[in-house]
Amino acid sequence: MTASVKIDIAEDTILVGIAAAPGIAISRSYLVNRDRMVVIERRISPAEVKPETAAFKAAVEKSKCQLREVKEQADSKELSEHLYIIDTHLMILDDEMLIGETVSLIREDLINAEGALNRVLRKLRRVFDKISDEYLRERRSDIDSIGDRLLRNLLGETHESLADVEEQVIVVAHDLSPADTVQMDRSKVVGFVTDVGGRTSHTAILARSLGIPAVVGLETITSLLPSGLPMIIDGSTGSVILKPSPETFRDYLLRKQHYDYLESELLKFRTLTAETKDGHSLALRSNIDFVSEILPAKEQGAQGIGLFRTEFLFMSGDGPPSEDEQFGVYRTAVEQMAPFPVTIRTLDVGGDKFVPEFNLSDEVNPAMGLRAIRFSLKEVNLFRVQLRAILRASAFGPLRIMFPMISGVAEVRACKQFLERVRHDLLSESIVCGENVEVGIMIETPSAVLIADLLAKEVDFFSVGTNDLIQYCLAIDRGNEHVAYLYEPMHPAVLQALLRVCRAAENAGIAIGMCGEMAGEHMYSLVLIALGFKELSMNAGNISRVKRIMRQVEIVEVKQILERLLSLPTAEEVVAALEQEMRDRYPEVFTEIHI
Known about the structure:
The chain is of the alpha/beta class. Helices cover 47% and strands 13% of the residues.
């Protein structure tokens, strides 16, 4: 623990970061003094290649041993549902791009081990920085965590463990890895804040799962704080209050008691149905990346998987997964989720960012380039293998196929024709497929919204991907901090787009769902119900919150609310009216927590 005071901090100093995990924590700071490492690249002689390579491989093995120990600790702490994240890090330690290229640089370019590793890490970070999808871009933090561990082991530096914290504290760190988070003693670490990180990093996901309030992306908090400073963090708003005054302390103590009470009340909703007071029901499903997330999702009350992102299958290993490898994963998912359906989204990547053997050139505007279904329809061999694996898995339980980023009817027909050819091939090989595999598309582009009535005649279901739809609808690069403030889910244009899609689905008699961030935001729940959504897919931890909102209203009431919101001309006015409505209807939820 670092004891030196860094700057004078005024009473009630407020910092605002990214709200990563909800809840309020009140304690003293515990500064993790983990200085950034200085890596010096140097040329080596041919005689040094062998010892440098050996040192690097030893660091890799030591890192694996450390992570396996973390897994064992997690097992003993009954955190087994989160072990897939540690497994992901172990897989990265076998990744050819990270390990193989580092060894190649040592041998072929005659560079010392840490210099070679640092070069490869920089290359990987650049790859992730180009990704438009926030969730996938945040996977860079996993590379950073593994890279940091490898470098420390290579340079012989110790990796400070948070398992040894002896008193109740709020951890303050430049960054934390998922392994750090798993090792936290939750009776001691009551919250954490970091300089870097995003809401969809694995560390943030773990914090939410473990119920540890967290605020990330504070940029310079480690350079401001000494250890032992009184502080409050509000993981619901992203606020951090340093040196709270007695009045602020009392205020937040009451808020914390209220929040903790609401959380305990949520437990009652896990086993209840998702329906309004007058019996209008919705299917609440979960978004996942790994099969290991299915059982925790079922425990949270998920009635199926509304979005199984398959990208991670393609991001690990030496190349794209084989048909049998994919089949094994999809079949396990279907069998574990039965009798509820699993919706598998076909590969949603851009260019050659995750499939190195496809030598496609970098694109000027990758968000609108060769990505998602456009990539699959070009790389048909890759597409065929995935569809074969999905169709084979469909014989083992309810399964739906979803094509991402559809912009027109021609694309849908091309996908369906290709799918039918794959099915025909399988049947001609006497391989059994499911008989009633539903085919759907993601509505993410303005063109898909405008011709939703035509698209609805082609498929069995729609699922709105709000992250991209809002971005394209409002022409906002949500990763650009200069215009990010214009990213407004309640913009009248977005509401009209959602209304149009829902009406098209209703008229065609097909299912309409949502699997974007909006689906899990309980502030929007009444709006989505009123618009006509039948399925909402979200992070499993949000399911009970949405249920609680639903079960206190009747359908006629939400339609009246929507009618009023649709008459308002600006996003600001819509949000103000909606927030007031939610505060009036759910004062116990929104009045105290959302300040």
